[in-house]
Amino acid sequence: MPAVVIVGAQWGDEGKGKATDLLGSRVDYVVKFNGGNNAGHTVVIGDQKYALHLLPSGILSPGCVPVIGNGVVVDLSVLFEEIDGLEERGIDTSRLVISANAHVIADYNRTMDKVAERFLGSRKIGTTGRGIGPTYADKMNRLGIRIQDLFDENILRQKVEGALELKNQILTKIYNRRAVEIDEIVDELLSYVDRLRPMVADTPLLLHEALAAGKTVLLEAGQATLLDVDHGTYPFVTSSSATTGGACTGSGIAPTEITRVIGIVKAYATRVGEGPFPTELFDDDGEQLRKNGAEFGTTTGRPRRCGWYDAPIARYAARINGVTDFVLTKLDVLTGWDQIPVCVAYDVDGERLEEMPMTQTGFHHAKPIYEFFDGWHEDISACRTFDDLPRAAQDYVSALEKMSGARISTIGVGPDREQTIVLHDLL
Question: Which is the CATH superfamily of the domain at 3-98+199-262?
Protein backbone atom coordinates (compact mmCIF):
# COMPACT_ATOMS: atom_id res chain seq x y z
CA MET A 1 0.00 0.00 0.00
CA PRO A 2 1.16 3.54 -0.65
CA ALA A 3 3.14 6.08 1.23
CA VAL A 4 1.82 9.45 0.04
CA VAL A 5 3.62 12.76 0.61
CA ILE A 6 1.92 16.15 1.00
CA VAL A 7 4.18 19.17 0.51
CA GLY A 8 3.68 22.90 0.20
CA ALA A 9 4.60 24.19 -3.26
CA GLN A 10 5.13 27.85 -2.38
CA TRP A 11 6.28 29.56 0.85
CA GLY A 12 3.88 27.76 3.19
CA ASP A 13 0.34 28.46 4.39
CA GLU A 14 -1.09 26.88 1.24
CA GLY A 15 -3.68 24.79 3.08
CA LYS A 16 -1.82 21.53 3.70
CA GLY A 17 -3.90 20.92 6.81
CA LYS A 18 -7.14 20.86 4.85
CA ALA A 19 -5.63 18.55 2.25
CA THR A 20 -4.41 16.16 4.92
CA ASP A 21 -7.76 16.32 6.67
CA LEU A 22 -9.58 15.47 3.41
CA LEU A 23 -7.59 12.25 3.18
CA GLY A 24 -7.51 11.53 6.91
CA SER A 25 -10.49 9.19 6.96
CA ARG A 26 -8.91 7.09 4.19
CA VAL A 27 -5.39 6.70 5.58
CA ASP A 28 -4.13 4.77 8.55
CA TYR A 29 -1.17 6.92 9.60
CA VAL A 30 -0.40 10.64 9.22
CA VAL A 31 3.24 11.54 9.85
CA LYS A 32 4.65 15.01 10.46
CA PHE A 33 8.25 14.67 9.27
CA ASN A 34 9.87 18.09 9.69
CA GLY A 35 9.64 21.43 11.44
CA GLY A 36 8.21 22.22 14.83
CA ASN A 37 5.70 24.63 16.26
CA ASN A 38 6.97 27.44 14.02
CA ALA A 39 4.18 26.82 11.53
CA GLY A 40 0.63 25.61 11.77
CA HIS A 41 -2.35 24.17 9.97
CA THR A 42 -5.92 25.41 10.25
CA VAL A 43 -8.60 22.79 9.72
CA VAL A 44 -12.30 23.73 9.58
CA ILE A 45 -14.85 21.00 10.27
CA GLY A 46 -18.42 22.26 10.17
CA ASP A 47 -18.56 25.28 12.47
CA GLN A 48 -15.42 24.22 14.35
CA LYS A 49 -11.98 25.61 13.57
CA TYR A 50 -8.85 23.82 14.80
CA ALA A 51 -5.44 25.50 14.77
CA LEU A 52 -2.71 22.86 14.90
CA HIS A 53 0.90 23.86 15.45
CA LEU A 54 2.94 20.79 16.35
CA LEU A 55 0.46 17.95 16.03
CA PRO A 56 -0.17 16.23 12.67
CA SER A 57 -3.54 17.00 11.07
CA GLY A 58 -4.42 13.31 11.36
CA ILE A 59 -5.10 13.90 15.05
CA LEU A 60 -8.59 15.07 13.97
CA SER A 61 -9.43 11.89 12.04
CA PRO A 62 -10.90 9.06 14.16
CA GLY A 63 -9.06 5.78 13.58
CA CYS A 64 -6.00 7.47 12.11
CA VAL A 65 -2.68 7.19 13.96
CA PRO A 66 -0.89 10.58 14.10
CA VAL A 67 2.90 10.33 14.23
CA ILE A 68 5.52 12.95 15.08
CA GLY A 69 8.55 11.74 13.12
CA ASN A 70 12.25 11.84 13.92
CA GLY A 71 12.75 14.90 11.68
CA VAL A 72 10.60 17.10 13.90
CA VAL A 73 11.86 19.30 16.75
CA VAL A 74 9.48 19.14 19.72
CA ASP A 75 8.69 21.84 22.26
CA LEU A 76 7.19 19.66 24.97
CA SER A 77 5.33 22.49 26.71
CA VAL A 78 3.63 23.37 23.41
CA LEU A 79 2.92 19.69 22.69
CA PHE A 80 1.04 19.10 25.91
CA GLU A 81 -0.71 22.46 25.78
CA GLU A 82 -1.99 21.57 22.32
CA ILE A 83 -3.03 18.08 23.43
CA ASP A 84 -4.91 19.50 26.42
CA GLY A 85 -6.67 22.05 24.23
CA LEU A 86 -7.92 19.38 21.83
CA GLU A 87 -9.01 17.04 24.60
CA GLU A 88 -11.02 19.86 26.18
CA ARG A 89 -12.90 20.06 22.87
CA GLY A 90 -13.60 16.33 22.86
CA ILE A 91 -10.83 15.22 20.47
CA ASP A 92 -9.22 11.86 21.29
CA THR A 93 -5.43 12.26 21.27
CA SER A 94 -4.58 8.86 22.76
CA ARG A 95 -3.37 7.48 19.41
CA LEU A 96 -0.48 9.95 19.12
CA VAL A 97 2.97 8.39 18.62
CA ILE A 98 6.27 10.29 18.90
CA SER A 99 9.64 9.18 17.54
CA ALA A 100 12.28 8.42 20.16
CA ASN A 101 14.76 10.16 17.85
CA ALA A 102 12.91 13.47 17.51
CA HIS A 103 14.89 16.35 18.99
CA VAL A 104 13.70 18.45 21.90
CA ILE A 105 13.58 22.25 21.96
CA ALA A 106 15.16 23.33 25.24
CA ASP A 107 14.52 26.74 26.76
CA TYR A 108 18.03 27.91 25.86
CA ASN A 109 17.26 27.26 22.18
CA ARG A 110 14.36 29.72 22.35
CA THR A 111 16.58 32.26 24.09
CA MET A 112 19.34 31.91 21.49
CA ASP A 113 16.80 32.30 18.67
CA LYS A 114 15.41 35.58 20.01
CA VAL A 115 18.69 37.25 20.93
CA ALA A 116 20.39 36.22 17.68
CA GLU A 117 17.53 37.60 15.58
CA ARG A 118 17.68 40.93 17.44
CA PHE A 119 21.44 41.00 17.02
CA LEU A 120 21.13 40.59 13.24
CA GLY A 121 19.02 43.76 12.97
CA SER A 122 18.34 44.59 9.31
CA ARG A 123 19.85 41.24 8.29
CA LYS A 124 17.30 39.26 10.31
CA ILE A 125 15.79 36.11 8.82
CA GLY A 126 12.29 36.64 10.20
CA THR A 127 12.17 33.60 12.49
CA THR A 128 9.29 32.96 14.87
CA GLY A 129 11.61 33.01 17.89
CA ARG A 130 10.51 29.54 18.95
CA GLY A 131 13.97 27.97 18.99
CA ILE A 132 13.56 25.92 15.83
CA GLY A 133 16.75 26.97 14.05
CA PRO A 134 19.04 26.69 17.11
CA THR A 135 17.64 23.22 17.85
CA TYR A 136 18.36 22.02 14.31
CA ALA A 137 21.81 23.61 14.60
CA ASP A 138 22.42 21.62 17.80
CA LYS A 139 21.28 18.49 15.96
CA MET A 140 23.80 19.02 13.18
CA ASN A 141 26.52 19.99 15.68
CA ARG A 142 25.79 16.76 17.59
CA LEU A 143 24.81 18.73 20.69
CA GLY A 144 21.10 17.97 20.47
CA ILE A 145 18.78 16.40 23.01
CA ARG A 146 16.49 13.67 21.72
CA ILE A 147 13.22 12.45 23.18
CA GLN A 148 14.87 9.19 24.25
CA ASP A 149 17.48 11.10 26.30
CA LEU A 150 14.79 12.18 28.76
CA PHE A 151 14.47 8.58 29.91
CA ASP A 152 18.08 8.46 31.13
CA GLU A 153 18.81 11.30 33.55
CA ASN A 154 22.58 10.81 33.43
CA ILE A 155 22.69 11.09 29.62
CA LEU A 156 20.30 14.04 29.71
CA ARG A 157 22.44 15.95 32.18
CA GLN A 158 25.62 15.25 30.20
CA LYS A 159 24.01 16.54 27.01
CA VAL A 160 22.64 19.69 28.65
CA GLU A 161 26.07 20.40 30.16
CA GLY A 162 27.71 19.95 26.76
CA ALA A 163 25.25 22.26 25.04
CA LEU A 164 25.51 24.99 27.67
CA GLU A 165 29.29 24.99 27.84
CA LEU A 166 29.48 27.15 24.72
CA LYS A 167 26.01 28.72 24.79
CA ASN A 168 26.52 30.30 28.20
CA GLN A 169 29.74 31.88 26.97
CA ILE A 170 27.85 33.38 24.04
CA LEU A 171 24.90 34.52 26.15
CA THR A 172 27.01 36.22 28.82
CA LYS A 173 29.95 37.60 26.84
CA ILE A 174 28.32 38.54 23.51
CA TYR A 175 24.64 39.11 24.25
CA ASN A 176 25.04 40.30 27.89
CA ARG A 177 22.41 37.84 29.12
CA ARG A 178 22.49 35.71 32.24
CA ALA A 179 23.88 32.20 32.07
CA VAL A 180 21.40 29.32 31.93
CA GLU A 181 21.45 26.94 34.89
CA ILE A 182 21.88 23.28 34.03
CA ASP A 183 19.52 22.14 36.76
CA GLU A 184 16.62 24.30 35.59
CA ILE A 185 16.80 22.80 32.09
CA VAL A 186 17.15 19.22 33.33
CA ASP A 187 14.34 19.59 35.87
CA GLU A 188 11.96 21.08 33.32
CA LEU A 189 12.59 18.33 30.77
CA LEU A 190 12.30 15.57 33.36
CA SER A 191 8.92 16.94 34.44
CA TYR A 192 7.43 15.68 31.16
CA VAL A 193 8.76 12.13 31.34
CA ASP A 194 5.83 10.29 32.94
CA ARG A 195 3.30 11.71 30.53
CA LEU A 196 5.59 11.40 27.52
CA ARG A 197 6.80 7.82 27.94
CA PRO A 198 3.66 5.97 26.71
CA MET A 199 3.66 7.99 23.47
CA VAL A 200 7.22 7.21 22.39
CA ALA A 201 8.08 4.48 19.89
CA ASP A 202 10.54 3.34 17.22
CA THR A 203 8.51 5.08 14.53
CA PRO A 204 10.57 4.01 11.46
CA LEU A 205 9.93 0.38 12.46
CA LEU A 206 6.27 1.13 13.21
CA LEU A 207 5.75 2.70 9.78
CA HIS A 208 7.68 -0.03 7.96
CA GLU A 209 5.49 -2.68 9.57
CA ALA A 210 2.36 -0.67 8.76
CA LEU A 211 3.23 -0.47 5.07
CA ALA A 212 4.13 -4.17 5.01
CA ALA A 213 0.70 -4.92 6.50
CA GLY A 214 -1.08 -3.02 3.72
CA LYS A 215 -1.71 0.22 5.61
CA THR A 216 -1.67 3.64 3.97
CA VAL A 217 0.75 6.24 5.35
CA LEU A 218 0.44 9.96 4.65
CA LEU A 219 3.57 12.07 5.17
CA GLU A 220 2.80 15.71 5.94
CA ALA A 221 5.36 18.50 5.49
CA GLY A 222 5.65 21.57 7.64
CA GLN A 223 6.50 24.81 5.82
CA ALA A 224 7.02 24.42 2.07
CA THR A 225 9.38 23.93 -0.86
CA LEU A 226 10.56 27.56 -1.09
CA LEU A 227 11.40 27.43 2.63
CA ASP A 228 13.39 24.19 2.38
CA VAL A 229 16.91 24.63 3.77
CA ASP A 230 18.47 23.19 0.59
CA HIS A 231 16.00 24.09 -2.15
CA GLY A 232 14.32 27.23 -0.83
CA THR A 233 15.15 30.92 -1.10
CA TYR A 234 18.20 30.56 1.15
CA PRO A 235 19.02 32.08 3.63
CA PHE A 236 15.40 33.14 4.12
CA VAL A 237 14.29 29.58 4.80
CA THR A 238 13.45 27.24 7.63
CA SER A 239 16.07 24.93 9.14
CA SER A 240 14.69 21.59 7.94
CA SER A 241 13.89 19.70 4.73
CA ALA A 242 10.31 20.49 3.74
CA THR A 243 10.40 18.57 0.45
CA THR A 244 9.76 14.97 -0.56
CA GLY A 245 13.38 14.10 0.24
CA GLY A 246 12.80 15.32 3.78
CA ALA A 247 9.82 12.98 4.06
CA CYS A 248 12.21 10.03 3.81
CA THR A 249 14.87 11.28 6.21
CA GLY A 250 12.32 12.71 8.64
CA SER A 251 10.25 9.54 8.91
CA GLY A 252 12.51 6.59 8.15
CA ILE A 253 10.40 5.52 5.17
CA ALA A 254 12.42 4.47 2.11
CA PRO A 255 12.07 6.46 -1.15
CA THR A 256 10.87 3.33 -2.96
CA GLU A 257 7.78 3.24 -0.71
CA ILE A 258 6.47 6.62 -1.92
CA THR A 259 3.88 6.24 -4.67
CA ARG A 260 2.33 9.71 -4.89
CA VAL A 261 3.41 13.27 -4.11
CA ILE A 262 0.69 15.87 -3.61
CA GLY A 263 1.74 19.51 -3.92
CA ILE A 264 -0.46 22.12 -2.26
CA VAL A 265 -0.59 25.46 -4.04
CA LYS A 266 -2.71 28.54 -3.46
CA ALA A 267 -4.55 30.21 -6.32
CA TYR A 268 -2.34 33.20 -5.49
CA ALA A 269 0.81 33.43 -3.34
CA THR A 270 1.73 34.44 0.20
CA ARG A 271 4.86 34.61 2.30
CA VAL A 272 5.66 35.25 5.98
CA GLY A 273 9.00 36.61 7.12
CA GLU A 274 11.83 38.13 5.15
CA GLY A 275 13.14 37.24 1.70
CA PRO A 276 12.43 37.76 -2.00
CA PHE A 277 8.88 37.54 -3.33
CA PRO A 278 8.64 38.62 -7.00
CA THR A 279 4.83 38.92 -7.24
CA GLU A 280 4.35 40.65 -3.88
CA LEU A 281 1.70 43.38 -3.94
CA PHE A 282 1.93 46.61 -1.98
CA ASP A 283 -1.36 48.09 -3.21
CA ASP A 284 -5.09 47.68 -2.68
CA ASP A 285 -5.05 44.31 -4.47
CA GLY A 286 -2.59 42.97 -1.88
CA GLU A 287 -4.76 44.23 0.97
CA GLN A 288 -7.85 42.70 -0.64
CA LEU A 289 -6.15 39.31 -0.98
CA ARG A 290 -5.10 39.46 2.66
CA LYS A 291 -8.63 40.39 3.77
CA ASN A 292 -10.46 37.90 1.54
CA GLY A 293 -8.07 35.06 2.40
CA ALA A 294 -7.73 35.85 6.13
CA GLU A 295 -3.99 35.82 5.55
CA PHE A 296 -2.63 35.88 9.07
CA GLY A 297 -0.30 33.25 10.46
CA THR A 298 -1.89 30.29 12.27
CA THR A 299 0.97 30.19 14.78
CA THR A 300 2.21 33.79 14.93
CA GLY A 301 -0.78 35.86 13.85
CA ARG A 302 1.58 37.83 11.61
CA PRO A 303 0.00 39.34 8.47
CA ARG A 304 1.16 37.44 5.41
CA ARG A 305 2.70 39.15 2.40
CA CYS A 306 0.37 38.60 -0.58
CA GLY A 307 0.93 38.42 -4.33
CA TRP A 308 -0.27 36.86 -7.55
CA TYR A 309 0.26 33.24 -8.60
CA ASP A 310 3.82 32.44 -9.67
CA ALA A 311 3.93 29.63 -12.26
CA PRO A 312 7.76 29.25 -12.37
CA ILE A 313 7.71 28.57 -8.63
CA ALA A 314 5.01 25.93 -9.08
CA ARG A 315 7.04 24.25 -11.83
CA TYR A 316 10.12 24.34 -9.64
CA ALA A 317 8.23 22.71 -6.75
CA ALA A 318 6.82 20.07 -9.10
CA ARG A 319 10.32 19.26 -10.30
CA ILE A 320 12.06 19.21 -6.90
CA ASN A 321 9.36 17.10 -5.24
CA GLY A 322 8.23 14.88 -8.10
CA VAL A 323 4.68 16.21 -7.70
CA THR A 324 2.09 13.90 -9.23
CA ASP A 325 -0.97 15.96 -8.23
CA PHE A 326 -1.63 19.55 -7.23
CA VAL A 327 -4.30 20.62 -4.79
CA LEU A 328 -5.28 24.20 -5.68
CA THR A 329 -6.60 26.00 -2.61
CA LYS A 330 -8.45 29.24 -1.95
CA LEU A 331 -9.77 29.75 -5.47
CA ASP A 332 -12.76 31.51 -3.88
CA VAL A 333 -10.49 34.28 -2.58
CA LEU A 334 -10.00 35.54 -6.16
CA THR A 335 -13.73 36.22 -6.65
CA GLY A 336 -14.34 39.86 -7.47
CA TRP A 337 -11.45 40.80 -9.77
CA ASP A 338 -12.11 41.82 -13.37
CA GLN A 339 -8.69 40.53 -14.38
CA ILE A 340 -6.27 38.22 -12.56
CA PRO A 341 -2.54 38.42 -13.34
CA VAL A 342 -0.38 35.28 -13.32
CA CYS A 343 3.42 35.40 -13.34
CA VAL A 344 4.57 33.24 -16.25
CA ALA A 345 8.27 34.21 -16.34
CA TYR A 346 10.77 36.68 -14.90
CA ASP A 347 12.69 39.65 -16.21
CA VAL A 348 16.16 39.56 -14.66
CA ASP A 349 18.27 42.51 -15.76
CA GLY A 350 16.58 42.55 -19.15
CA GLU A 351 16.70 38.78 -19.74
CA ARG A 352 13.51 36.72 -19.81
CA LEU A 353 13.76 33.58 -17.65
CA GLU A 354 11.07 30.89 -17.81
CA GLU A 355 12.38 29.17 -14.66
CA MET A 356 13.63 30.30 -11.27
CA PRO A 357 17.02 32.04 -11.47
CA MET A 358 19.93 29.92 -10.34
CA THR A 359 21.38 32.48 -7.93
CA GLN A 360 20.08 34.34 -4.90
CA THR A 361 21.04 37.62 -6.59
CA GLY A 362 19.07 36.73 -9.71
CA PHE A 363 15.93 35.91 -7.73
CA HIS A 364 16.22 39.12 -5.70
CA HIS A 365 16.30 41.08 -8.96
CA ALA A 366 13.53 39.08 -10.67
CA LYS A 367 10.57 41.09 -11.90
CA PRO A 368 7.38 39.19 -12.77
CA ILE A 369 6.19 38.96 -16.37
CA TYR A 370 2.41 38.65 -16.25
CA GLU A 371 -0.32 37.17 -18.39
CA PHE A 372 -3.83 38.35 -17.57
CA PHE A 373 -6.92 36.19 -17.24
CA ASP A 374 -10.58 37.17 -17.03
CA GLY A 375 -11.91 37.18 -13.50
CA TRP A 376 -15.34 36.33 -12.12
CA HIS A 377 -17.78 37.84 -9.66
CA GLU A 378 -20.02 34.87 -8.86
CA ASP A 379 -19.85 33.24 -5.42
CA ILE A 380 -18.16 29.85 -6.01
CA SER A 381 -18.16 28.59 -2.40
CA ALA A 382 -21.07 26.22 -3.07
CA CYS A 383 -19.56 24.71 -6.24
CA ARG A 384 -18.87 20.98 -5.94
CA THR A 385 -17.99 20.06 -9.54
CA PHE A 386 -15.72 21.69 -12.09
CA ASP A 387 -18.71 22.42 -14.31
CA ASP A 388 -20.34 24.36 -11.45
CA LEU A 389 -17.56 26.96 -11.66
CA PRO A 390 -18.01 30.07 -13.82
CA ARG A 391 -16.33 29.75 -17.21
CA ALA A 392 -13.65 32.30 -16.26
CA ALA A 393 -12.75 30.30 -13.13
CA GLN A 394 -12.56 27.10 -15.17
CA ASP A 395 -10.24 28.79 -17.67
CA TYR A 396 -8.05 30.13 -14.86
CA VAL A 397 -7.65 26.67 -13.30
CA SER A 398 -6.94 25.07 -16.69
CA ALA A 399 -4.30 27.69 -17.46
CA LEU A 400 -2.57 27.15 -14.09
CA GLU A 401 -2.52 23.41 -14.69
CA LYS A 402 -0.79 23.84 -18.06
CA MET A 403 1.82 26.14 -16.52
CA SER A 404 2.55 24.31 -13.28
CA GLY A 405 4.02 20.94 -14.21
CA ALA A 406 1.41 18.52 -12.82
CA ARG A 407 -2.32 17.96 -12.99
CA ILE A 408 -4.68 19.78 -10.62
CA SER A 409 -6.65 17.06 -8.89
CA THR A 410 -8.53 19.00 -6.21
CA ILE A 411 -9.78 22.59 -5.92
CA GLY A 412 -10.62 24.33 -2.66
CA VAL A 413 -13.50 26.83 -2.84
CA GLY A 414 -13.77 27.60 0.88
CA PRO A 415 -12.23 26.75 4.26
CA ASP A 416 -14.56 23.90 5.22
CA ARG A 417 -13.60 20.33 4.37
CA GLU A 418 -16.82 20.03 2.31
CA GLN A 419 -15.98 23.08 0.16
CA THR A 420 -13.90 21.04 -2.25
CA ILE A 421 -14.06 20.03 -5.90
CA VAL A 422 -12.44 16.65 -6.62
CA LEU A 423 -11.26 16.14 -10.19
CA HIS A 424 -9.05 13.08 -9.62
CA ASP A 425 -8.77 10.77 -6.63
CA LEU A 426 -5.64 11.52 -4.57
CA LEU A 427 -5.15 7.96 -3.32
Answer: Adenylosuccinate Synthetase, subunit A, domain 1 (3.40.440.10)
